[in-house]
Amino acid sequence: MDGLAATIRARGWTPVAVWSTHAHWDHVLDGPGLAHLPRWSAGVPGTDRETLAAERDADPELARSGEPAAPVGAVATQYPARSPGVLDWPGPTVQVLVHAAHSRPATALFLPGSGVLVAGDLLSDVEIPLLDLSAEDPVGDHVRALDLLEATGADVVVPGHGHVGRDLDRRLAADRAYLAGLVAGVPATDPRADLPWTAAADAAQQAAVAP
Asked: In which domain, by residue range, is 146 found?
């Protein structure tokens, strides 16, 4: 978060709000230059800050990184809408895409003027699709979300975890191939499942979705 604040200052940008794509702890963090800003979302439930902080502190990846934990921000409120699904703010047009993949509800943001898609925890080049296993149809929810993001035709993908890329089609294909393997009960060969924690997530998803 300190690095983000430093980049914002260096570029001379003036942030006007913080967007939470979903209610997982790593998407509701606070930091320098952000604490005074409104926090927006689309129907993200108001999980209390103590619960989110406890989830943050129990995260094994964060513990292994040795990095100090950023504070959890205030609960996000419903975003101001210019029209259904369009953010009302002084910047460029932003379309709010609501879906049920990974966490319910969740969002992605698409800026049609620049072709930029802020994908939240979808379309990562370093993580397998991470399903909401509490959902009735977690794979179907994820497939429908991918269809929604594909329809943007985005030129640039900004994932919540991983690298920015100009490869929307490749990322969609990789995620769909992984999901198809889950449904078929085929062990994953996706290199994104090779990390210890993604391997554990894959095993849990294989067990939950196995035919």
From this structure: 80-211
**Global pTM?**
0.86
DSSP letters, the chain, are -HHHHHHHHHTT-----EE-SSSSGGGSB--TTTTTS-EEESS-----HHHHHHHHHT-HHHHHHTPPPPPB-PPPEEPPEEETTEE-SSSS--EEEEE-SSSSSEEEEEETTTTEEEEETSS-SSS-----TTSSSHHHHHHHHHHHHHTTT-SEEEESSS--BS-HHHHHHHHHHHHHHHHHTPPP--GGG-SHHHHHHHHHHHHHH--
* % of residues, the chain, pLDDT over 90: 61
> What confidence tens digit (pLDDT) does each residue in 63-106 have?
566 676 666 666 678 899 999 999 999 999 999 999 999 888 89
Q: What integer pLDDT is reported at residue 34 of this predicted model? A: 81
95/48 same-domain check: no
Judge if 23 and 68 occupy the same domain: yes
Q: Identify the domain boundary among 79, 95, 113.
A: 79
